[in-house]
Amino acid sequence: MQTVAHILHSKSIQSVCRVAPTATVLDALKLLAEKSIGALLVMEGERIAGIVSERDCTRKVELMGLSAGGTLVSEIMTSSVICVGPDHSNEQCMALMTENRLRHLPVVDNDKLIGLISIGDLVKDIISEQQFTIQQLEHYIHGVRG
For the domain that residue 106 is a member of, what is the CATH number? Predict the structure, then answer.
């Protein structure tokens, strides 16, 4: 299994989209749509204050009878953020995501945010690894017959 560091290195987008806790939910939704992403880290300076997802924006605002333009991200964000390090394996991340029903994991190294991985990133990595294994097996089989 690959490590989170390898997955981050292979991602085409390296920067992490972020929003301040004082931003409105409408601002967060606009940024999510503009970047075609599913979650934003809520940052206070260099500290992770929370995470807010499309699901948070739509479900919590609507269910609480709030307006996106008048509600702050801090009111709907998830404050207890589970993070991983660059040495975590794909398998460890998948287990964390499954156990905690998460779709995104911030990656932190020495208390510094270095990236964000999604369930899609992990699945893409697993598929890539399986394709490589299949190719190696095919080469072995054809080499034995040839």
Answer: 3.10.580.10
Residue among 16, 32, 43, 116 at smallest CA distance from 68:
32
Residue 70 DSSP code = T
Give me the average pLDDT of each 10-residue run along the chain (146 residues).
87 83 97 94 96 92 90 96 96 95 95 93 83 79 70
Q: Provide the number of structural domains found in the chain.
A: 1
Angle of helix 90-100 relative to helix 119-145, nearest 10 degrees, comes to: 140
Buried b (16+ CB within 10 A) or exposed e, 39-65: bbbbbeeeebbbbbbbebbeebbeeee
Domain enclosing residue 94, as ranges? 4-145
- The Cα–Cα gap between 77 and 17 comes to 15
Contact between residue 84 and residue 96 where contact means Cβ atoms under 8 Å apart: yes
